[in-house]
Design brief:
Blueprint lengths: L3 E5 L4 H12 L3 E6 L18 E4 L5 H11 L3 E4 L8 H4 L1 H22 L4 E7 L22 H20 L2 E7 L2 E2 L8 H13 L6 E3 L5 E2 L2 E2 H12 L6 E4 L5 E2 H11 L9 E3 L17 H4 L9 H17 L5
Parallel strand pairs: 1-2, 1-4, 2-3, 4-5, 5-6, 6-11, 7-10, 8-13
Antiparallel strand pairs: 9-12
Helix pairs in contact: 1-7, 2-4, 4-5, 6-8, 6-10, 8-10
The structure holds NADP nicotinamide-adenine-dinucleotide phosphate and ligand G4F.
Length: 324
């Protein structure tokens, strides 16, 4: 049977990598994108002609039903979300709708359309929040620390509930932070790689950041979209943590990024600004991905290489007078 994937959030970091990987595996790929006043297909520009794009919004059930009818997917990857934790305090209701309730929209759309399909929900390590144990695995209780985290917990539990209630094939990839040159510029890793590149090239002399002490389990985004695909190829729907198992502070990321750019001492460039601190912080995340490793997954890029890939990319595009 030919494989047909519908990816929500096709224009995002993960959507773009996943689409490329599925095209390489001869999938027919459909992508749900939302209308905006200016088109923003940068991340998928190079292979856009191979994807079938469907306009729709994850908060609009009608457009989801239309997308399902048009694509008749064998696999759905629900990646669409308001994914920036900081914005979830300034737009909590939008975040709950887009990141939480949207999963229920999608599941109801599937039921109303009466189609047989597998569903992958992009769950998040933010659900562990104020962690109750380290490292975190599939059995670690959730303690979300942001409206975003709470919305992801809601989406997670509705997916589990529909799996148990209706026997639907719904799996969760509980993904820890994953980054790449396609990462949005407001996330700390890309903000640092871009900021450091600007400083190294003499285009800027300051980088404003918030809490440098929080720690994250940072991996490479294409490894995580491989994980999402692998999870949906299993015979049984289930939930898996995707993580490297290593944790590093924002300070360590910053230090390494400046070193990659050839700057040993960064104190004079970095300014701590309270506006980037969060009302409630997630201090430490470290994932235990043993279950996913047992089905054949492993991360391919080390922390040091991840930082280098991102800084090198930003140096290269900024040298060409690209993104500022
Ligand atoms: P991202 O780059 O922010 O992409 C989010 C995507 O969702 C974008 O394509 C965005 O469209 C789309 N979207 C937002 N609101 C929408 C709406 N109302 N209707 C339709 N589409 C909408 O995020 P990402 O890093 O690729 O992450 C993918 C998913 O994994 C998200 O659900 C995120 O919460 C989750 N996750 C990410 C990480 C991580 O470290 N990256 C870790 C755990 C979980 P626009 O381009 O139009 O904004
Ligand atoms: O890069 P961040 O904004 O990512 P965060 O909050 O960990 O969320 C990301 O990972 C989650 C998985 O755990 C995803 F679910 C979510 O969608 C997203 O992809 O912030 C990382 C850390 C935080 O502790 C933050 O306080 O960096 C700290 N930080 C310090 N200065 C900063 C800054 N974060 C941002 N964005 N900007 C700063 O200037």
């Amino acid at each position: 049977m030919s494989k047909i994937a519908l990816i929500t959030g096709i224009t995002g970091q993960d959507g773009s990598y996943l689409a490329e990987q599925l095209l390489d595996e001869d999938y027919e790929v459909y992508g749900l994108y939302r209308r905006s006043s200016l088109p923003h297909f940068e991340r998928i520009e190079e292979f856009k002609d191979k994807i079938k794009l469907i306009e729709g919004d994850i908060t609009d059930v009608g457009s989801l039903i239309r997308a399902l009818k048009e694509s008749e997917p064998t696999e759905i990857y629900n990646l669409a979300a308001q994914s920036f934790v900081g914005t979830s305090w300034t737009q909590p209701i939008n975040t709950m709708n887009t990141t939480g309730l949207s999963m229920l929209n999608l599941l109801e759309a599937i039921r109303l359309s009466d189609i047989e399909t597998r569903v992958l929900q992009a769950s998040s390590s933010e659900m562990f929040g104020k962690v109750v144990e380290t490292p975190q695995n599939e059995n670690t209780p959730f303690y979300p620390r942001s409206p975003y985290g709470v919305a992801k917990v809601a989406a997670y539990w509705i997916s589990v509930n529909y799996r148990e209630s209706y026997g639907m094939f719904i799996s969760n990839c509980i993904a820890f932070n994953h980054e790449s040159p396609r990462r949005g510029i407001e996330f700390v890793t890309r903000k640092i790689s871009n900021g450091v590149a600007n400083i190294a090239l003499g285009k800027s002399d300051r980088l404003e950041l918030g809490n440098l002490e929080s720690k994250r389990d940072w991996g490479y985004a294409p490894d995580y979209t491989r994980a999402m695909h692998l999870i949906l190829q299993q015979s049984k729907a289930d939930d898996y943590v995707a993580a490297t198992g290593e944790t590093h502070s924002v300070r360590e990321f910053l230090d390494r990024a400046f070193k990659v750019a050839g700057i040993d001492s960064w104190d004079k460039y970095v300014i701590i600004n309270q506006k980037y601190f969060r009302p409630a912080e997630v201090d430490l995340l470290t994932g235990d991905a043993s279950k996913l490793r047992n089905i054949g997954w492993k991360p391919s890029i080390s922390f040091d290489d991840l930082v280098k890939i991102m800084v090198d990319y930003d140096m290269q595009i900024l040298s060409k007078d690209g993104l500022e």
